[in-house]
Amino acid sequence: MEREGGGEDDIVCLDESFFINDNYQLTKFTFGSQVLELFCLHAASTDFDLTGQLVWPGAMLLNDYLSKNAEMLQGCSVIELGSGVGVTGILCSRFCREVVLTDHNEEVLKILNKNIELHTSSENRNCTGLVAKKLEWGSSAQIKQILDEHSGGFDLVLGADIYILINTSILKFSTELFYIYIYVHYVCVNYYYAICHSARKRFIRAWNYIMLRCMEIKNYIIGLAGGMPVLSPMLIYGFQQSSIPLLFDTVAQLLHVRRGQCKFILAYVSRAKILDAMVTNEAISHGMQISEVVGTRTIVGNLEGVIYEITLQ
Length: 313
Prior knowledge:
Blueprint: E1 2-4, E2 11-13, E3 25-31, E4 34-40, H1 57-68, E5 77-81, H2 87-92, E6 98-103, H3 106-119, E7 130-134, H4 140-149, E8 156-160, H5 175-195, H6 200-224, H7 233-257, E9 263-270, H8 273-285, E10 288-292, E11 298-300, E12 303-312
Parallel strand pairs: 5-6, 5-8, 6-7, 8-9
Antiparallel strand pairs: 1-2, 3-4, 9-12, 10-12, 11-12
Helix pairs in contact: 5-6, 7-8
């Protein structure tokens, strides 16, 4: 928190750290015979762009599949998109010769690197060849930088729930719940304009009131959402629809390096029919063949999940 000016009419400025939750907890995950411990959040961040701090259902689905088919990982080079805290990439490092974990968010990369350090320490030598890189989907420059360091490309591209980024469970909520959330935004915006020129004491009183009201409503909504981040349907659809083409642009560039010898394994969790269709259509429009892995369709939590293998046609 920073303070500008002096006297009664000081303006209190909240820096970005105010909205970041870094209360990570060491958590144990078991996949077959493999046991992993990683730092992650158990509840949603206050910032929708930090969903990588959580372990999502798709990661559990993918790790379960990989642990049962570990032979496909033996000696492979792997790049994971949207690695988050690294639960999938770190599992793969038990079997692969090299694993590149990627994410676009600096805060997520911090916890990702912390988990890599945890698993490459002298006490834990099962994991080798782990490295984290920043990667914005669709960024040819960042993809080129990674491929310059890994000129032979990769055997596998992995992704789990990466097209989601933000939770779509709000789409299934009642109209009443949606209007409650809109009300939160309305209150915040109106109070912002009311207090930005007020005296510091009035600012603090108003801010405390806002936080109390918003936390009450936020806790109610997050409780219904199962602890995941919640945003308005319009923002969810717009953000997800814009991210899916960039995802497949990135996958296409990675697959082209070893055409016919590299495949994209996607753990897909269905949350909205429009997104189901968009993922399939984007793969096809990028000249890819998308195939469901037989026997992998299952229920993850209360959602339907499946493993897809995606290759260049």
